[in-house]
Amino acid sequence: MTAVTWSGSRDIRVVEVDRPALAHPEDVILRVTSSAICGSDLHLYTGNFPKGSMTKGDILGHEFMGKVHEVGDDVKNLAQGDRVVCCFDISCGRCDACRHELYTLCDKSNDSTAQERLYRDKSGGYFGYSHLTGGWAGGQADYVRVPFAEQNLLKVPSEHERHGDLDVILLSDVLCTAWHACEMGNVSKGDTVAIWGAGPVGILTAQCAQHRGAKKVLLIDQEKYRLDFAERRLDPRSLVTLNGRQHQHDGGVAKAVRGVLPHGPDVCIEAVGFHYASTLLHKAEMSLGLETDPADVMNEIFTTVRKGGRVSVVGVYLGYVNHFNFGCFMEKGLTMKAGQTPVQRYWKDLLKKIENKDLEPRVVITHELPLEDAARAYQIFNDKQEGCVKVVLHTRF
Ligand code: NAD
Ligand code: ZN
């Protein structure tokens, strides 16, 4: 079968490999029809990951969907031919973490000791996302093995043409992540919300915040084309966009946000991640020697958010982050929540919202390419070429 593999920093290779086989009675083998590239994949693509956590030939991809091809003996609610979306993380559905709906912290899906060293605790396993998160093969391929299939696959209706792959594929991750960002920030009717990052996650977070009745939504990025794109896709009545680059020399983003909301936003959401933000990673662990970026998103958030406000972090961070203004966090009495998204907590409700046209995640998809063109797809998404916001890869089935 054809698969998209990591071969080094900025080195994506589409190769022929053996098809996966059922390895456990709770497995499904999925015939993938579409997969997406996530901002999280860019951390792997650019090599901003702990040394040794990726191996040449690792199959990438954690946002994908397709048709059930083979079913393990213990899988009762799925049959060959069912159309399903797969969630990005792998959870068992039965352990202590899963019983508390903390699926991305599942005890059973990841036994990496490297992960334990880095976080001092284990996170769950993810498809196609390094040996830190279980070393599971990803879904940017013709076929993929899905463990604990009843827990990790969501059946989607096949009968309606309007439920094309583009309508539902983002339930695998970024739509649920956008919703999770709003849930963690408790975004409610009448709130003012500022979102850092106008990538697929940030734009969909803005869409979800508008759906939840936010009075004003500020979307902040440094790429003008992404803000222009967001303005065309979101409800203009409550949207304000801010280009961080334009405010570099006039007091910065924090001052610009206060210009719109003098008391500060009720909720600030981080949808950027360490890939860009000014983080000094613990070098002994990370062996990366990263250059810091002048933009310091978390501290912009702490100084901007209103007193007693809420901070929600879905942008991915790894290891130690220094120069964190903990004093500001404490003195302003802030609440902060962060985490990888427990997709299964939300995806059934969000599927209904898509069916009712309350949410329309496909608006962020700008590019569709064949799986074979994955190297180019990673490049245009990472380098922000051709107005790219979100890429979906299609297999040739
Ligand atoms: P993306 O890379 O397309 O978007 C990030 C955006 O941030 C870009 O548009 C970039 O221009 C912008 N940016 C960079 N520096 C900035 C700054 N200083 N201020 C404001 N904006 C800035 O990625 P994405 O797919 O939208 O994902 C966003 C983040 O969410 C990534 O870190 C990704 O790893 C993370 N993520 C988390 C989860 C989760 O479960 N928590 C799931 C999916 C993605
Ligand atoms: Zn993702």
UniProtKB/TrEMBL annotation:
InterPro entries for the chain: ADH-like_N, ADH_Zn_CS, ER, GroES-like_sf, NAD(P)-bd_dom_sf
Source taxon at top rank: Eukaryota
GO molecular function: oxidoreductase activity; zinc ion binding
Organism: Nannochloropsis salina CCMP1776
Ranges where the Enoyl reductase (ER) domain occurs: 8-393
Protein name per Swiss-Prot or TrEMBL: Enoyl reductase (ER) domain-containing protein
Cofactor section: Zn(2+)
This protein's UniProt keywords: Metal-binding, Oxidoreductase, Zinc
